[in-house]
Description:
- The protein is α/β, with parallel strands linked by helices.
- The chain contains ten helices and 13 strands.
- The protein has a single domain, classed as 3-Layer(aba) Sandwich (UDP-N-acetylmuramoyl-L-alanine:D-glutamate ligase), CATH 3.40.1190.
- The protein has helices at 28-36, 54-61, 125-132, 147-152, 154-161, 171-178, 183-191, 233-245, 258-275, 289-303, and strands at 3-6, 10-15, 24-26, 42-49, 65-73, 79-84, 91-97, 117-120, 140-144, 166-170, 197-201, 207-211, 216-219.
Amino acid sequence: MPILVVGSVALDAIETPFMKTDGVLGGAASYFATAASLYDQVNLVAIVGNDFPEEYLDFWRSRPIDLRGLQIAEGKTFFWRGRYHMDMNTRDTLDTQLGVYANFHPVIPEEYRRSPLVFLANIQPELQLEVLAQVSGAYLTVLDTMELWIMTARQRLTEVIKRVDVLLISEEEVRQYTEQASIVTGARRLLDMGLKYVVVKQGSYGALLFGADGTYFSAPSYPLIEVIDPTGAGDSFAGGFLGYLSTVEVSAAGTYTVDDIKRAVVHGNIIGSFTCADVSIGRLRTVMMDDIAQRYKELVEHSHFDPHWRPVYR
């Protein structure tokens, strides 16, 4: 089942306390497309400059990634430079050069417009609304956002939230958008806006799922001995989430079960863990479905406990 993704493709320069890179593949759509293509076809809509390395295009062509929606414009590709702190969770942006992305307006090819699964990656809400105006009939539309848009484009972001099915958001962003200290209360406020599900990303601690039907689910993270580069882990989470759902048969009404969504969250955590194990998409290039299955099995073992315990009264 093909997945449409609209987002940014970039070249990154990344510094951590342990390594330094320059000119590696980055951008939300890059991570998402690479991750989701492990499961099924991805239709990519983004923009790059004519300086974009051909090797990355060749890699995508070797995967089930359709590039008819990728605009190649005269100029420089979006560039981002960042530095991570010792905890590998906190980072500082050192430089951002929008390049051709500054003039990007998504044009959805006719063949993509009825994609059954749609991912609005972390771009301006105004652009996300442009996408929604061009697509129809999706089984599930998933949105990602960030602090910048909450602060600078709140009204437009609210419009987008009211038109999608699932919101992926961090704990800090839940508090910032809803002005609620409690994540549970904040998630419920978001669900009241018409969402079917809210997925709260907790980084190295996993993810929480809240459903409009009262569903609550906590998915653990995969325990990593070493984190090399966490850039793109959230975008890869989305790729695993929707990638898994692309392999699931929907009901006659075009809906997923709660268990489908729970498993999708687990797949998101697994794919995010692979991304952290190397620079850029390095590990995602080599991941096999057997690797995913092994981590899924391990997470089941790590998080399972006896449901039959009963208190003993004395």
